[in-house]
């Protein structure tokens, strides 16, 4: 785009800028296409509405950012697919962080469109029918590539692909995005390989189970000593509930039942990996994986925030009882998509339930500790060796 040999002097002399250097800014960015792509329907109907321009530009900006998010997600999925090397986790972190920052912009962008009043929107809304964000192909691809499953969608949303009718290219992309491993699937595979889970090795799960039993036993003893009968009953009920919650992770069949109900997403082993990474996040080898898990939650969180902001904007623009231009119940439909069903990494949010106080976290044995540390135990350096030999510090002596 910019020319290695500055074109400035030649430009002053009135020369054609693109003679030697190839492309100019507008050409490279194809601005003729991008900036010609706004066609307010009010103008077509000879009743121009000032705010329709903002409405179009806002949607287009969203679609461009959706495209960038998909681009990043595809690349991150690619890295996860090709047996992940630890050296690649930094690249994953950078890209996921970028997705998070874009999503933050998208959440805030809703406010700009809210400067349009409902009365202004009414002026051109009818021209839009049956167009609707419900038909955004990229939004569906983004959901699928993250790992929103058909079964977890609310009823009206399950047939979302119908809106693409006979558009073969769109249908192909949708089918592909549903069939290929989602980010959630790939993160799950990666978590299943968390070092330290091996039963014949550190056996984190066995040790963690023991620690939890110890905590529960101590709590039971405290409750038994309670003199006040009604307080005792209350504490006992609370303890029973905690035990049940822990059962849900210690008994694989309970975990599987929760997965098939859609209340949990990760496999049992992946959940173990996520708990281990969260508890030992201060170990060098787990600090980047822990950041990855945090970013995945941020993504879920920000998409939920976008859904919420969009829903509020819709209520402000069309109220709670008008149908959407796409044919849904409008505000009511959008409200129903705000549940945990659409959170792909919901298990990570719920991990906090299973955290245990630091003092109970099973201590790492030497072998595991050095395994979880990139740099290994401190080794003697050449300087240390010389110092030991001479009883002096050679570096200080040379000053
Ligand atoms: C005045 C502004 C807006 C209004 C009144 C509005 C209204 C609606 C309504 C009523 C729906 C439900 C489907 C339907 O029946 O049409 C919907 C869905 C959707 N809209 Fe908007 N929308 C607005 C702005 C936007 C913007 C700026 C975007 C950005 C891309 C967007 C993206 C979407 C998406 C992706 C869906 C599908 C959501 C889902 O199915 O979970 N909308 N919109």
Automatic annotation (TrEMBL):
GO terms for biological process: L-tryptophan catabolic process to acetyl-CoA; L-tryptophan catabolic process to kynurenine; ommochrome biosynthetic process. Its cofactor is heme. It holds the Pfam family Trp_dioxygenase. Residues 208-237 form a coiled coil. The keyword RNA-binding does not apply. Binds 1 heme group per subunit. One of its GO terms (molecular function) is heme binding. Pathway: Amino-acid degradation; L-tryptophan degradation via kynurenine pathway; L-kynurenine from L-tryptophan: step 1/2; Pigment biosynthesis; ommochrome biosynthesis. Its EC number is 1.13.11.11. Keywords: Coiled coil, Dioxygenase, Heme, Iron, Metal-binding, Oxidoreductase, Tryptophan catabolism. It comes from the Eukaryota. Gene3D superfamilies: 1.10.287.3810, 1.20.58.480. It is an enzyme of class 1 (oxidoreductase). Belongs to the tryptophan 2,3-dioxygenase family. Homotetramer. Dimer of dimers. This is Tryptophan 2,3-dioxygenase. It comes from Phyllotreta striolata (Striped flea beetle). The lineage of its organism: Eukaryota, Metazoa, Ecdysozoa, Arthropoda, Hexapoda.
């Amino acid at each position: 785009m910019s020319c290695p040999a500055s074109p400035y002097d030649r430009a002053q002399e009135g020369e054609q800028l693109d003679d030697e250097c190839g492309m100019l800014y507008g050409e490279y960015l194809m601005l003729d296409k991008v900036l010609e792509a706004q066609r307010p329907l009010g103008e077509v109907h000879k009743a121009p509405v000032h705010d329709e321009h903002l409405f179009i530009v806002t949607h287009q900006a969203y679609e461009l950012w959706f495209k960038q998010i998909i681009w990043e997600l595809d690349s991150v999925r690619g890295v996860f697919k090709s047996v992940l090397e630890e050296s690649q986790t930094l690249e994953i972190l950078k890209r996921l962080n970028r997705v998070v920052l874009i999503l933050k912009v998208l959440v805030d962008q809703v406010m700009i469109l809210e400067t349009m009043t409902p009365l202004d929107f009414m002026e051109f809304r009818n021209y839009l029918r049956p167009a609707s964000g419900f038909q955004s192909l990229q939004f569906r691809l983004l959901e699928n590539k993250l790992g929103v499953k058909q079964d977890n969608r609310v009823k009206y949303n399950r047939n979302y692909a119908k809106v693409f009718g006979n558009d073969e290219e769109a249908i192909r992309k949708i089918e592909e995005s549903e069939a290929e491993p989602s980010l959630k699937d790939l993160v799950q595979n990666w978590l299943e390989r968390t070092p330290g889970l091996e039963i014949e090795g550190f056996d984190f799960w066995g040790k963690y189970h023991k620690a939890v039993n110890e905590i529960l036993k101590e709590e039971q003893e405290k409750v038994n000593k309670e003199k006040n009968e009604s307080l005792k009953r209350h504490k006992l009920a609370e303890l029973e509930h905690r035990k049940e919650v822990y059962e849900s992770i210690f008994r694989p069949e309970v975990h599987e039942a929760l997965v098939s109900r859609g209340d949990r997403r990760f496999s049992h082993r992946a959940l173990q990996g996520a708990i281990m990474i969260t508890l030992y996040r201060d170990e060098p080898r787990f600090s980047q994986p822990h950041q990855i898990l945090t970013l995945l939650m941020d993504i879920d969180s920000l998409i939920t925030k976008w859904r919420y902001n969009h829903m509020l904007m819709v209520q402000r623009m069309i109220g709670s009882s008008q149908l959407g231009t796409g044919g849904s119940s409008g505000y009511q439909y959008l409200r129903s998509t705000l549940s945990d069903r659409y959170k792909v990494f919901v298990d990570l949010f719920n991990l906090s339930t299973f955290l245990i106080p630091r003092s109970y976290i099973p201590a790492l044995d030497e072998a595991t500790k050095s395994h979880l540390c990139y740099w290994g135990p401190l080794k003697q350096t050449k300087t240390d060796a010389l110092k030991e030999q001479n009883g002096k510090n050679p570096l200080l002596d040379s000053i």
